[in-house]
């Protein structure tokens, strides 16, 4: 135990001489040594203090040799503290009983009469064991809390708008399957968050989730990155290396920016998906893969396919189910929810007790078109909180331009009257932030008439 005093010890024995000897020896080496001759005091003593090691006599009744009392109090101790480290104090002839005690939950035993050095070594090891148990318990608790957060179906992205409720409903239905999913949406709408939600709610949730940004992979390195390579396959291939498909096998592979692939790369990807195996660059040995594929893009793949810029057969392969994320300007009613969500996150991060957003702040956010979508709102909220001088944010804390909204005119792609009416309804709804009553009044319609038109145009 060296010279540093370490650990709290509780010793229980009906022999006062034993207790005196233990106290005399251990007080030089541990920070606390409490002794007690009456085992009935154990619950009270354990309630009063936290002990790293408990030394427990096996027999308390005079002339008793069965050790039953020791087992009884061992069980009591472990009921109070399942992590307790208990060392039995036992006579030399009771080794068989001591082994039985270890099976019952004791950590080790100390033979009477003991050798001081061996006793100190045993207690030192027991203290380390207790500290390790505590660390493991703490890690498990943290992991449990983390899992509880991660297990929330859609904790990373939120929304009460009908558009987002439709997205959540689709995720719930699709996640439990192994169907390939294509996620569509503008930059900043949260496509990777959808992919992670699909993974977390799937049968593969305990396996790996591998995300690959195809837009950032050089075409010359495409095969090496995705399918792997063997040593010597090319100049810099100094060792064998698995590709992302191999690494993701058993779990989920998320291919972001799937629309950025050239036609030759599309062909190579399609071959792997059809055969469900990869061949590393420089090898001819096929390696089976088992992945759940999720892809995402902000590009119009169907239009690209019709223009022969994207392989139709690859498009069929990757979009068994399609999920389209709405732009933030299409779900204005979610802005307060999202803004205050980010406010709470960054208030904690930067240790600032910022109050919920005022009506003036929300109006400023409503009046912006959000080309960068939810990601832009997130960054805007973080910056405003970092720069805040007090607990209340002001509309001027949000660096956005609202000039566009005051100048915007309705532009028509056609002069078809139904299309014109649809565009006007969309504009008025947006101007009135989705308020049906206000929009109907501005359009000179009853609420019922407006609802009929909304249904007619699928708005």
Explain this structure to me?
The protein is α/β, with parallel strands linked by helices and 459 residues long. Helix content is 46%, strand content 13%. It has 19 helices and 14 strands. The longest helix is centred in the N-terminal third of the chain and has 35 residues, at 116-150. It is elongated, with a radius of gyration of 34 Å. The termini are far apart. The modification 4-aspartylphosphate is found at residue 57.
Main sheet attributes: strand count, strand direction, barrel closure:
5 strands, parallel
Q: What is the share of helical residues? A: 40-55%
The average pLDDT value, as a whole number, equals: 85
For the biggest β-sheet, the strand order reads: 2-1-3-4-5
Oligomer: single chain
Number of helices: 19
Count the beta strands: 14
Q: Which secondary-structure class do the elements indicate? A: alpha/beta
- What portion of the residues fall into strands of 2 or more residues? 5-15%
Kindly report how far apart the N and C termini lie: 75 Å
Describe the global form: elongated
Could you list the spans in which at least 5 consecutive residues all have pLDDT below 50? 148-153, 403-409
Over the alpha carbons, how many angstroms does the gyration radius reach? 34 Å
């Amino acid at each position: 135990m060296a010279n540093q005093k370490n650990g709290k010890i509780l010793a229980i024995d009906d022999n006062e001489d034993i207790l005196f000897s233990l106290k005399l020896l251990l007080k030089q080496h541990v920070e606390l040594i409490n002794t007690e001759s009456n085992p009935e005091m154990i619950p009270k003593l354990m309630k009063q203090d936290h002990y790293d090691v408990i030394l427990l006599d096996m027999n308390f009744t005079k002339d008793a040799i069965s050790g039953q009392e020791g087992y009884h109090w061992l069980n009591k101790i472990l009921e109070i503290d399942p992590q307790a480290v208990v060392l039995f104090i036992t006579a030399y002839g009771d080794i068989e009983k001591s082994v039985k005690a270890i099976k019952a939950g004791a950590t080790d035993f100390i033979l009477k009469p003991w050798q001081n050095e061996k006793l100190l070594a045993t207690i030192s090891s027991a203290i380390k064991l207790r500290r390790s148990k505590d660390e493991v318990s703490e890690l498990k608790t943290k992991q449990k809390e983390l899992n509880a957060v991660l297990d929330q179906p859609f904790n990373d992205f939120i929304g009460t708008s009908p558009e987002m409720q439709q997205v959540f409903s689709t995720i719930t239905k699709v996640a439990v399957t192994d169907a390939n999913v294509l996620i569509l949406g503008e930059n900043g709408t949260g496509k990777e968050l959808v992919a992670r939600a699909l993974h977390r709610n799937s049968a593969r949730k305990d396996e790996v989730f591998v995300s690959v940004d195809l837009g950032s992979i050089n075409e010359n390195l495409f095969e090496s990155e995705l399918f792997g390579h063997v040593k010597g396959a090319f100049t810099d291939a100094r060792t064998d290396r698995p590709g992302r498909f191999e690494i993701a096998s058993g779990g989920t592979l998320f291919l972001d920016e799937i629309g950025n692939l050239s036609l030759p790369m599309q062909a190579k990807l399609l071959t792997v998906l059809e055969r469900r195996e990869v061949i590393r660059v420089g090898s001819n040995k096929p390696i089976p893969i088992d992945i759940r594929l999720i892809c995402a893009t902000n590009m119009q793949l169907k239009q690209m396919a019709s223009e022969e810029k994207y392989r139709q057969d690859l498009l069929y392969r990757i979009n068994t189910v399609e999920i389209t994320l709405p732009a933030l300007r299409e779900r204005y009613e979610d802005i307060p929810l999202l803004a205050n969500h980010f406010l709470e996150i960054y208030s904690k991060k930067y240790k600032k007790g910022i109050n919920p957003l005022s009506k003036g702040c929300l109006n400023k956010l409503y009046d912006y078109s959000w080309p960068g979508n939810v990601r832009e709102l997130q960054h805007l909220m973080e910056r405003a909180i970092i720069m805040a001088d007090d607990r209340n944010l002001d509309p001027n804390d949000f660096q956005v331009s609202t000039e566009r909204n005051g100048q915007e005119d309705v532009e028509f792609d056609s002069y078809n009257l139904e299309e014109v009416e649809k565009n006007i309804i969309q504009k008025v709804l947006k101007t009135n932030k989705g308020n049906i009553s206000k929009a109907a009044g501005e359009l000179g319609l009853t609420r019922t008439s407006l609802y009929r038109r909304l249904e007619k145009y699928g708005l």
